[in-house]
Write a structure and sequence with these properties.
The chain is α/β, with parallel strands linked by helices and about 400 residues long. The protein has helices at about 15-30, 40-45, 65-80, 115-125, 125-145, 155-165, 175-180, 190-195, 215-230, 255-265, 280-285, 300-310, 320-325, 340-350, 350-365, 370-390; strands at about 1-5, 35-40, 55, 85-90, 100-105, 150, 170, 205, 235-240, 270, 290-295, 315, 330-335. Strand 2, helix 2 and strand 3 (about 55) form a beta-alpha-beta unit. The radius of gyration is 21 Å and the shape is globular. The chain starts with a strand and ends with a helix.
Length: about 400
């Protein structure tokens, strides 16, 4: 039986959490595999163990740099202690001297994005710029240290190949429709009340906590243009964040974005719901009319798949990864153009038949993503590494 050891200590937010929560149940259904997950104590407490799926915890090591050096020292010992066959590193950084074959899951496009570096310089975020440069260096080294690097999209795999040489392939992340739609409980009451207040409006949804690379500012600048073009629709932008730095992970300053909203005169038309639990997200998508994203860098974009599964027309920035994931289910606009974003929204809002056709294409496209298929491809890669190691 193939034994996989997942170093998932970096899975503390966003796609990392989504990955662990979906992959573990898929592995549980496979009789040919057992897995050990190294997790934070908080995440491990919510994951049910079984005969073939084990969850172990590590001491809390604050800071990405300190955690990196702790992992370099301790992970080789742990994989040998657990007698694992393949190490799967889930946090963008590989172990330099892994005693067993290693698969690196790379999923942070900030290390390859010129737009992110330019954005940080314009914001004079020199500390973040230096931090990103160090992490980019380690990410590039990691591509060389891993036996195989797996990216969640072909577009991001191409970016990684430009960053550094390595054995790099793409395996799409998945989507579990049954899990996503399983909870019938209503949205939290405060979110329901805010949505009800916008019941007669054109509701545009964007799902993300605040950060720079999701390009909130282009969305904000587009909103008054949309409202001017569609005065009878009273367009609102629905956010799953609050524009206060302390309410968001990372070191991104949200206050300038909040000031921009006031400057544009759209304070009453941007609805800040705050974070919505994953189990309730399907109800939020279904309560809105369009899904919009102006992100200037992505590796996979799970919310696009979620919105497609809910049959929502999409308006997305023209990134290769967005076109790869959504294909013809979305309307695309130049990434930093609020004018073009507004035009695409107006088209979907006015041409209802075209929007309905887009929604149908979105539903069909969402069916192409499967966590079981993702796990099948990962296990195939791992088994091939073990077979090659035995021959050498």
């Amino acid at each position: 039986m193939l034994h996989l050891f997942y170093n998932a200590l970096a899975a503390s937010a966003g796609s990392g959490l989504t990955y662990v929560r979906n992959v573990a149940p898929c592995l549980e259904r496979r009789p040919d595999v057992r897995a050990t997950f190294l997790l934070s104590a908080e995440l491990a407490s919510e994951m049910p163990a079984s005969d073939r799926i084990q969850f172990v915890t590590a001491p809390n090591v604050p800071g990405a740099a300190r955690r990196f050096f702790w992992e370099q020292r301790e992970i080789p010992r742990l994989v040998q202690q657990h007698q694992a066959d393949v190490l799967i590193s889930v946090g963008n950084f590989a172990i330099r001297r892994s005693p067993i074959p290693q698969i690196l899951l790379s999923g942070n496009s900030l290390y390859t994005s010129q737009d992110f570096r330019r954005d940080l310089r314009q914001r004079r975020e020199y500390g973040l710029l230096l931090d990103n440069a160090l992490k980019t260096f380690l990410a590039a080294r990691s591509l060389r240290w891993a036996d195989v690097t797996v990216a969640p999209s072909q577009a991001f795999a191409a970016d990684l190949r430009r960053l550094a040489p390595g054995n790099i392939t793409a395996v799409h992340h998945g989507f579990d429709r049954d899990v996503f739609f399983s909870d019938p409980a209503p949205l939290p009451a405060p979110a329901q009340q805010k949505l009800q207040a916008a019941a007669n409006s054109l509701r545009l949804l964007f799902v993300s906590h605040y950060n720079y690379y999701r390009n909130f500012e282009t969305l904000f600048r587009a909103l008054p243009l949309i409202r001017a073009k569609l005065p009878e629709r009273n367009a609102k932008l629905i956010l799953t964040t609050r524009l206060r730095s302390e309410d968001n992970p990372g070191s991104f300053r949200a206050e300038p974005a909040a000031a921009l909203i006031r400057q544009l005169g759209i304070t009453d038309h941007v609805i800040e719901l705050g974070a919505i639990p994953y189990r309730h997200l399907h109800q939020l998508y279904q309560a809105c009319d369009l899904y919009v994203t102006a992100a200037y860098t992505e590796t996979f974009a799970h919310p696009l798949v979620e919105a497609m599964a809910c049959g929502k027309p999409l308006v997305a920035s023209d990134l290769p990864v967005h076109r790869e994931i959504a294909q013809d289910a979305a309307a695309y606009f130049p990434t930093f153009s609020p004018e073009d974003l507004a035009d695409r929204v107006v088209i979907w809002a006015v041409r209802q038949e075209a929007a309905n056709q887009s929604a149908t294409r979105a539903l069909d496209r969402a069916k192409d993503f499967s966590w079981d298929q993702h796990v099948h491809e990962m296990v195939t890669i791992a088994a091939d590494l073990v077979a090659r190691a035995k021959k050498s």
